[in-house]
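I hope you will forgive my troubling you with a question about protein structure. Here, with my thanks, is the record as I have it:
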Amino acid sequence: MGGRGRGADGGAARGAAAEREEEIGEGFCGRGTAWPEQYAKEHGLDFQRLLDASAYKETFRQDMIRWGEEKRRADPGFFCRAAVEGAVQPVWVVSDTRRLSDVEWFRDVYGDVVQTVRIVATEETRKRRNWVFVAGVDDAESECGLDQGVSFDFVITNDGDELSLDQQLETLLQALHSRL
């Protein structure tokens, strides 16, 4: 299934959740941004442009994947620690985790308080968002590492129906409130 084009890493679901930030005091900890930020620093690139859905990002994507895998092999918690460094909110939304090792790291470090949320979209929706399958990218662990082996606490469907998305996020917030 892979991840690109679901709208999870800066799209509607994250935006709608951010609108509710004051409701439970959550903060966004970008596991997904720790990776390109470190890559940009080490390679002298424009970090902000590595976050958007541009040709600039795509130019570096495969090298970022290779570089990230090397970092992860040396230290599986490298990007996870970077994502939560300095976070003090009672609830964190760690966006864009992509591998089983990421989920395992958070569960090992924080235990039962970890709640996992998967954002999905149909292939048709992803294509409407200009997603086109790219071999070596969309079948790499960085895009499909969580397609198997993880039981998610919540699954959010992000197919462009704002009302449905809002209802799903409200259910998620209610569940989080009940755990505080």
About this structure: The first strand starts at residue 26 and ends at 30. The first helix runs from residue 12 to 19.
